[in-house]
Amino acid sequence: MLEKLNEIEQEALASLAVIEDEAALEAWRVANLGRSSPAMNVFSQMGTLSKEERPLVGQRANQVKVALEKAFAEKLEAVKQAALAKSLATEQLDVTLPGRPAPRGRLHPATQNLRRVLDILAEMGFQVYTARDVESDEYNFQLLNIPPHHPAREMQDTFYVESAQKEGSYSVVMRTHTSPGQIRAMREFSATNPQNPPPIRIALPGMCYRFEQITARSEVQFNQVEGLVVGESITFGDLKGTLSDFARRMFGQHARTRFRSDHFPFTEPSAEMDMECFVCGGKGCPVCKKSGWLEILGCGMVHPTVLQNGGYDPRRYSGFAFGMGPERQIMLRHKINDIRYFWGNDIRFLEQF
Ligand code: DAH
Asked: Taking a C-beta distance cutoff of 8 angstroms, is the pair 134, 164 a contact?
């Protein structure tokens, strides 16, 4: 019997040694210290032993029981420590680490610059007027003195709206410039409307569309900001003064400008306003193509026919108009050499603004 107790003890300790988790340990406890475990069975067999054997076996059985209980308690502690150490290692949380920044949305660079242009024009007394993106051929071309066979009306340059084509006419277009808004504004702020009397001083922003091959230099859509001033005795001097002032507000107090004669069907005389290259200060560089000047906008005195089409008598009223491309300004300022970045939705480009 004593021999058997030794065996029971050794086997139990050996199987305890390889245990690593609490579930297995609990199973071990039931098997080795539970009511029907081999050690406990020895106690129930005491009655079958002789008087001499009984105290010896009883003592030894108690020793085994105490030894197993002690070994169990030690193992339980060790298993718990190991579990704690493991969770400390895997669930480590360093509260001193900097947080991850949440990505913040922002305005598209084209929108940012468009708003800046409009803010400046608003400070100068211009009212923002939005016209439509889809225009009639009449407003986009005819009323602006662009005759039927003008090259700008070619199918290659203009998006015609399909539903209108089906009816056999080509009279509805995606506006190719913001200039048709001039006619809409003049007709709304008409000389005969007492609620909206002249003078007119408006800024017309918006997307324009052209049927272009998309390349680094041309896109099928782009923003323009159009300006229109109509009143009595408005002169070319007003045009030069206003636009030079705009350039200084937009590009800095030292921005120098020059006006070159040009041609647009809806203005007479027409001009192009250049400003001194802000990259090289006028010395000549790749951005200004060594000329020292950058083209900023087209402008001119509103053509008498256009005034008339807008409902203004050209003998009494005169005016000037201008049109510029806000994306082009961003490209010049940031030396961006590919216009496709604007509508390419590449976050690496947009994030820089
Ligand atoms: N509409 C012209 C364009 O798309 C720009 C322009 C030039 C607008 C001269 C004007 C102007 O109002 O006077 O290229």
From this structure: no
164-212 tens-digit pLDDT: 555 556 688 999 999 999 999 999 987 677 677 788 999 999 999 999 8
Highest mean predicted confidence (pLDDT) among 191-205, 308-322, 332-346: 308-322
Domains in the chain: boundaries? 2-90, 109-350
Given a contact cutoff of 8 angstroms between Cβ atoms, the answer to whether 66 and 33 are in contact is: no
What end-to-end distance do the CA atoms of the chain give, in Å? Answer: 89
Pocket test for ligand 1, best of 145, 146, 179 (most atoms within 8 A of CB): 179
Q: Which fold has domain 109-350?
A: BirA Bifunctional Protein; domain 2 (3.30.930)
The residue whose CA is least distant from atom 3 of ligand 1 is 177
* Selection from 317, 295, 320 nearest residue 308 by Cα: 317
Ligand 1 centroid to Cα of residue 210, in Å, is 14
Residue of minimum CA distance from atom 7 in ligand 1:
298
Looking at residue 168, its pLDDT comes to 55
Buried-exposed string 164-192: b where 16+ CB fall within 10 A, e elsewhere = beeeeeebbbbbbbbbbbbbbbbebbbbe
